[in-house]
Amino acid sequence: MTFLSTLRALFLINLTILLCHNAVMVVGSIGASCEGDDAVCVNDESSILFNVFAKWIDDRSLEGQKFLEQILLQPSSGEKIGSDDGESKSFFDEIKDAFASGTQTEEENIETKIWKGVSALKDMMGGSIEQFISDLKAEMETAKGDDTSNAAFDFATCFQTVFSAKNGKEENEESRKMASEFIQKASDLSQYLQSDRSTRGFLELYDITIKALGEVTETVKRNFGRIDWHRLKPFSIIYFLEYMESLLTPSWKRRAHAFAPEVSVEEVTELHKALYLANLAYLNSIEEIKAGLNEESSEWELIYAQLKTAPGEPAHYIALRKDKPLLQGTVRQNYLDVLLVVRGTKDFADVLSDGLLDAVEFRGGYGHAGLVQSGQFLVDHHIDLLHSLLKIAKKEKIKLTIIGHSLGAGAATIAAIIFNDDEKAIDANVIGFGCPALLSKELSESASPYVTTIISDSDMIPRLSGPTLVNAVFDIMSYDWIERGLTDLRDGLNFLRSSLPFDISSEQVDSVYNYIKNLLEKYIRVEIEEMAKAPREDVVLIPPGRCTHFYRDGNGVTGQQSSCEFFDYLEISRTMIDDHMIGIGYNRMLLDYMRHRLQNYQFTFEQTIV
């Protein structure tokens, strides 16, 4: 089988699975409720599905034709299913015929042939795919009209009292019901306004990825091209690690934070709730995210999720705060609570975003290139949605909470900076865990009123930028480990001498020792001295906003505010990778802090992070 045939087969299989999945999911998607004859539940995958059909029907561009000819319009061995004319044709053959006819005949003929394929697929599945696509098509065409807002805001008249103050049991129940309906309509609207970002063909995604890979390659050359990696010896790394750990002791960390204010138990409780929400973004399906948000203690209802990524386009989800009954005499707040959670690095596209680590000009300072791009994507992708939700909810302002871990924290910060330009409509705040070195000093400080960055002990990512990595490599290469190495060599030879079943004289041990010592002095010493003269890079990027450092203090874990400039070097530690993870890093650090502070070593948080 040729590569193209294999690729085509995989594409058709995946599309068939997607069709079947969405037929099953036609009732019960994103939102608080999908009940009622008029309910239309649209999730991220169904939006993608419609856009595939839309491209086949409406966008017969040269690029679209090229993609279809290369992937879909070749003869296939797909499963044959019955059709209205009695012939044995596959669903995809019907689509192929529709496209071929579309370049010569009227649009109606295309529709007829596509519905033939849909009908055949429906007969095979025994499902409701026809109604699903019909509803989807009608709603999307409405949303794609010249005036999207008018079509979407017809919903608003039904919900103008959703967030009004209510008194009494019956009115509160009515308010909750209407709020539930509002969340469902917001879910639908979020899909409508994303419809322009249609499913991209394989070739387009391939081009995007190859372009990003080329940019990352050039970034690596610019940042690390002057390093002779052959001179980085394993022994240098081992002994440098030991040396750093002898310096960065718990006592040193306590002294470095001696005058910094400590965080409270209440603050850590709220941070753990945010960490729980950040962890949900790493789940594999929309259903799992919904289930996580629907925990008894959760305050949020999912309205949108994008799980697929591309370079500079991180996965994320959006939720609205659930409406709560009011106590008599209280006044409902006049803002809409919206949650945006951005996922960190999980797949290859995310790695490419991370790899664009050059410091580029941003807002009068500098920012991490890949994360500036990712944050701008979030704003461009959702600014219209936020304004639409604000208008529907009849509120004065959106209180936007953005949470992220790793790459997600960086993209969240950039997005918040840009969102806050719209100060009359949006008030964005960020809680970031393990945010990469992101902004230049002045920009980082300017974001401190609304950006909180949490750093777990030796987490390497907040300290990692091109210059800090280059400097760390030169520090390792220039570390004089020869004396420590010779001490270990002497101890090893003596152990070997006492362990072997035959005698080795002290003169033989000395001979081997002196031979290796001469080699180290002759070759390694020269390289060490040369690397010590290598110029170090100026560090430009540091973590953003107001930094809080949780670290092992020798007795337990302490959490204190810290200058973000404290993290302008790469701390080489045995835990520098583990400390970056959500479960074994941030979750464990917050849990140990609470247990130590409360002196309750059975303490657990309300929500469990696996």
Rg, Cα atoms, Å: 30 Å
Oligomer: single chain
Report, as a whole number of angstroms, the end-to-end distance: 42 Å
Strand order of the largest sheet: 3-4-5-8-9-10-11-12
The main sheet comes to: 8 strands, mixed
Total count of helical runs of at least 4 residues: 21
Overall helicity: 40-55%
Q: Look at the helices and sheets and give the structural class.
A: alpha/beta
* Low-confidence runs of at least 5 consecutive residues: 1-96, 98-133, 139-171, 325-330
What report would you give on this structure?
The structure is a single chain. Strand 1 (81-82) and strand 2 (88-89) form a beta hairpin. It contains 21 helices and twelve strands. The chain starts with a helix and ends in a 12-residue tail after the last helix. By secondary structure, the protein is an alpha/beta fold.
Which terms would index this structure?
single chain; alpha/beta; eight-stranded mixed sheet; two-stranded antiparallel sheet; 12 strands; 11% strand; disordered N terminus
Produce a short descriptive summary.
The protein is of the alpha/beta class and 610 residues long.
SSE blueprint:
Elements: H1 3-24, H2 44-58, H3 62-71, E1 81-82, E2 88-89, H4 91-102, H5 107-125, H6 129-143, H7 148-152, H8 169-192, H9 202-224, H10 234-247, H11 250-256, H12 265-280, H13 286-293, E3 300-306, E4 316-321, E5 335-342, H14 348-355, E6 359-362, E7 365-368, H15 369-393, E8 397-405, H16 407-419, E9 426-433, H17 441-446, E10 451-456, H18 466-478, H19 482-499, H20 506-532, E11 546-552, E12 557-562, H21 582-598
Parallel strand pairs: 5-8, 8-9, 9-10, 10-11
Antiparallel strand pairs: 1-2, 3-4, 4-5, 6-7, 11-12
